[in-house]
């Protein structure tokens, strides 16, 4: 009978190998593995997943952190993930399937008579500040066997997780076992400065990898990478050298004993611990999570204790997001879930709390936990209230380089006066409308009124200045900025009960649309620049007018613009404006939401935008964490559908724009957690 089952297993493996792995819902550009903050951000390129046993994890910017998983089945070792050079006698497992949701990536790999499921979980907990700010992700490895097999599981990491990518750099390691049998390895860079970065990796703090001997016998060691892996391959355990030798690893082995169809699993937690997380105006701020734990070992214990609850919540979260996304706009919209939010303006300029980044990511926060809008904006408002910012318009960001949020007391931040004033007023009203909290904004009344006054004087005919799309340079009389000013003024008027500001905003709108100041001669579209008849652009700034039901502009204005988009669509989608050949996925989704405003109802145009973004995501030619910018046509050496410049940016929160039209607070509490005075949003 055992022979029969072995033959059957071999035939199934061969059949699956010939058919190739399955990808659910699609094969994305990159799979998230451990994505919790700007420094714990590990991914796997989609074009490497088929060769998962040999594929290496990637930091979001392309660096290669070492993270491996090896399985041992009936005495035979198999590489499952992250082992580019398996070593003598180590066979490669075979990937059967790859799946992602909003919170997890799951790979199924067969090896001998066993099947392993590698489940990478990065929890999302909109209403639990402690869980949300915990700087840890999970890896659960499950094993089953069609007959009864002896199974051991191995996993290691190295100094790259501490931001040290030179194998021979000095790094301190530690190992602890707590009273509840939690084992924790720590790796700490030596001789580095707090709040310093190198190549976007943190040069302070501690990486930590931890496990418990649940359903297994756990052994661990530190040693030379090749020697430690060979030791596991030969013995299935790690009696230990306990001496760091370059290139070195910290490693665990879990002996599951006899495994059958019922299966056994083990869970690892990986994190990057920064006791001082952000330098806010010279005051080192810790993550909210550290109110519970003050060191990485305690953090390990906490997150492993919390795993079942975090896992269950993540499954509910995935189901809620998938169900809501598909119900409002179909399956192609559902596939673009990417709900990762960061304070750092990743991969563009590294600014802290950038207003024109919070603005495009706001739909995600509006849907999941609107209270986080306040948590992101409050540090900005406190800084502006201090009087240290010397201008009469809002500051662009809180610091040029995360994690140093030192403000710009010299006044030399990126200059986007209309952009930032209009966005700030709109975002604050979005928060107030979603949560019912009128108290928070009231304390900044004089400051906000000053920014509204600035828009009254400067918003309709903006001087030569930058918009959120600053790569296009300084442009005079931008119609999009004037639209933003009109909607921002109306939002401020409604928020504060000052009708005169709403009236001015609507007068701006009438000038732009009824008097054609912002239109082309034939009234077919909004221009990019007022008076330049041939110019046009992606009009994403009307979106809050629709979302917040402000009616700043008439329905006819949005119907006009909606009908225009298909006429300027390139092969890959609608470009950002008339001068470029690339698109922005966040603004495409803003536009897609606007075209289905009540009384406009251009569902076909909405679906055009969704399908174009989905086609970019699923085209198989990109291998980076989701990029919000991509090429829309073949042009010399540029291939249509190729990503451009950006990756893993928080602006992909704009993909929730259509879902947000269904209302805020998907999880029923708009206050965004427990009302803590400060929290580090991931």
From TrEMBL:
Pfam families: DUF5127, GtaA_6_Hairpin. It comes from the Eukaryota. Keywords: Signal. Residues 1-19 form the signal peptide. Residues 335-658 form the Glutaminase A central domain. Residues 103-322 form the Glutaminase A N-terminal domain. The keyword Lipid metabolism does not apply. This is Glutaminase A.
């Amino acid at each position: 009978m055992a022979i029969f089952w072995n033959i059957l297993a071999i035939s199934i493996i061969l059949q699956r190998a010939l058919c190739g792995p399955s990808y659910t819902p699609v094969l994305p550009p990159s799979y998230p593995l451990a994505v919790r903050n700007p420094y714990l951000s590990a991914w796997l390129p989609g074009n490497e997943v088929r060769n998962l046993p040999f594929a290496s994890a990637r930091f979001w910017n392309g660096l290669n952190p070492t993270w491996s998983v090896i399985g041992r089945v009936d005495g035979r070792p198999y590489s499952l993930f992250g082992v580019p050079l398996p070593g003598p006698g180590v066979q490669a497992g075979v990937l059967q399937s790859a799946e992602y949701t909003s919170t997890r990536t799951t790979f199924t790999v067969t090896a001998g008579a066993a099947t392993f499921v590698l489940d990478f979980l990065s929890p999302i907990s909109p209403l639990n500040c402690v869980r949300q700010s915990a700087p840890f992700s999970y890896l659960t490895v499950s094993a089953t066997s069609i007959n009864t097999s002896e199974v051991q599981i191995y996993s290691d990491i190295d100094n790259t997780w501490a931001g040290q990518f030179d194998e021979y750099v000095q790094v301190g390691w530690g190992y602890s076992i707590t009273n509840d049998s939690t084992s924790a390895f720590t790796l700490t860079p030596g001789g580095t400065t707090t709040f310093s970065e190198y190549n976007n990796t943190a040069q302070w703090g501690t990486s930590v990898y931890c496990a418990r001997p649940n359903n297994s016998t756990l052994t661990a060691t530190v040693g030379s990478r090749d020697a430690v892996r060979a030791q596991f391959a030969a013995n299935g355990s790690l009696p230990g050298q306990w001496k760091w030798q370059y290139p070195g690893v910290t490693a665990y082995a879990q002996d599951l004993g006899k495994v059958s169809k019922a299966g056994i699993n083990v869970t690892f937690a990986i994190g990057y611990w920064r006791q001082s997380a952000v330098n806010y105006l010279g005051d080192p701020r810790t993550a909210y999570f550290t109110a519970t734990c003050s060191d990485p070992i305690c953090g390990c214990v906490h997150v492993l204790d919390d795993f079942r609850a975090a896992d269950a919540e993540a499954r509910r979260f995935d189901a809620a997001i998938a169900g809501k996304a598909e119900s409002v706009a179909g399956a192609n919209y559902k596939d673009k879930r990417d709900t990762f939010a960061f304070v750092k303006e990743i991969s563009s300029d590294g600014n802290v709390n950038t207003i024109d980044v919070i603005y495009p990511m706001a739909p995600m926060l509006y849907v999941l936990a609107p209270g986080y809008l306040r948590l992101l904006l409050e540090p900005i408002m406190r800084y502006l209230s201090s009087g240290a910012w010397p201008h009469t318009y809002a500051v662009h960001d809180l610091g040029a380089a995360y994690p140093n949020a030192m403000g710009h007391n010299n006044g030399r931040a990126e200059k986007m006066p209309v952009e930032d004033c209009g966005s700030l007023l709109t975002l604050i009203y979005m928060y107030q409308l979603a949560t019912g909290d009128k108290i928070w904004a009231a304390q900044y009344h004089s400051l906000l009124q000053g920014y509204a006054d600035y828009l009254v004087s400067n918003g309709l005919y903006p001087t030569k200045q930058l918009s959120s799309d600053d790569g296009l340079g300084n442009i005079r009389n931008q119609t999009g900025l004037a639209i933003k000013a009109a909607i921002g003024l109306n939002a401020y008027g409604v928020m504060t009960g000052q009708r005169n500001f709403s009236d001015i905003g609507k007068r701006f709108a009438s000038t732009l649309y009824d008097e054609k100041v912002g239109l082309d001669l034939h009234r077919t579209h909004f221009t990019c620049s007022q008076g330049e008849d041939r110019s046009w652009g992606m009009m994403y700034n009307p979106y809050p007018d629709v979302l917040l039901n402000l009616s700043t502009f008439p329905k006819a204005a949005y119907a006009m613009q909606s009908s225009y988009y298909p006429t300027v669509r390139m092969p890959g989608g609608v470009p950002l404006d008339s001068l470029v050949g690339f698109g922005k996925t966040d603004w495409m989704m803003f536009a897609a939401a606007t075209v289905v405003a009540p009384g406009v109802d251009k569902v076909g145009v909405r679906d055009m935008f969704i399908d174009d973004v989905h086609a970019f995501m699923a085209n198989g030619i990109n291998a980076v964490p989701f990029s919000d910018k991509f090429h829309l046509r073949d042009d010399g050496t540029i291939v249509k559908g190729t990503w451009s410049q950006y990756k893993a940016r928080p602006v992909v929160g704009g993909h929730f724009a259509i879902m947000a039209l269904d209302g805020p607070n998907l999880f029923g509490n708009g206050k965004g957690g427990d009302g803590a005075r400060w929290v580090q949003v991931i």
